[in-house]
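User: Predict the complex with fe (ii) ion.
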Amino acid sequence: MDKENNPQWVFCVVTQRLGRMPDKTWMQTADWKSEKHVPVIEAPDVVKKGEVVKVTVSVGKQIPHPNVTEHHIKWLDLFFWADGEKFPMEVGYATFDTHGESAQGPNTGPLYSEPFAVFAFKITKPGTLMATSYCNIHGLWKSEKDIAIK
Ligand code: FE2
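Assistant: Here is the predicted structure with fe (ii) ion placed in the model:
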């Protein structure tokens, strides 16, 4: 048997090396206090129906994430999924486009944009916020927070 060309055998080797079944997870998550990529959602637990809510989303609140040309957070995206609704809605999207780039080379520019955004909105139903962040090296991360209506 030609092991190298046998998908089942290759699968077994990969499983042994990883110590688990290989899978494809699009978005990683963890506690933001111990993992620097996780977007931190700062929002009230309860809001009044129809009142403007201000929600901050950031990366690096507890553990700073690198912010250099080679390694940085490119964007944050915030969604809201109202209870009982079939689909989530996008609240807003923020990009961070400059990380020390300049004509003189990487990390020589005068501007390093920080992954920090404030979104303002009104809701008429309780639901769940989901923030996503994208690191140019370490991919997609997410976090969630429920909001109730009083
Ligand atoms: Fe990263």
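The mean pLDDT is 90.
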